[in-house]
């Protein structure tokens, strides 16, 4: 729910209150001596990025296991030694077919 800033026109007191938009309309109709003040919005910056805790990494791992050929599986999937060697052979043959050696 948003936080609104109000001013009591009788006392000049400025205060904040949290309510829904429907509650705001009812509140302002009921209290004619209160007016809403227009203030700047609060924006949360994107600094710090997304935090990857162990629960999120486990979730990515489960998705990767369900889709073993995806890019997500390449990055987060659990790989056995056999799977790694198999992928190396596949990549080697792909490079050979493209003429890259």
Description:
By secondary structure, this protein is of the alpha+beta class. It has 2 domains: 3-37, no CATH class; 54-98, no CATH class. The model has no long low-confidence stretch (mean pLDDT 85). Strand 1 and strand 2 (14-18) form a beta hairpin. It is built from 4 helices and 3 strands; from the N terminus they run ββαβααα. The protein is rod-shaped, with a radius of gyration of 29 Å. The protein has a 3-stranded antiparallel beta sheet, with no helix packed on it.
What's the helix and strand layout?
Elements: E1 3-8, E2 14-18, H1 21-30, E3 34-37, H2 54-66, H3 71-76, H4 81-98
Strand count, sense and barrel status of the largest sheet are: 3 strands, antiparallel
The total domain count is 2
Low-confidence stretches: none
Number of strands: 3
Task: Please estimate the helix content.
Answer: 40-55%
Write out the strand line-up for the largest beta sheet, numbering strands in chain order. Answer: 2-1-3
Helix and strand string, N-terminal first? EEHEHHH
| Percent of sequence in beta strands | 5-15%
User: Which of globular, elongated, flat, extended, rod-shaped describes the shape?
Assistant: rod-shaped
Structural class assignment: alpha+beta
Distance linking N and C termini: 60 Å
Taking Cα atoms only, what radius of gyration do you get, to the nearest Å? Answer: 29 Å
Please state the average pLDDT score. 85
Oligomer: single chain
Give me the number of helical elements: 4
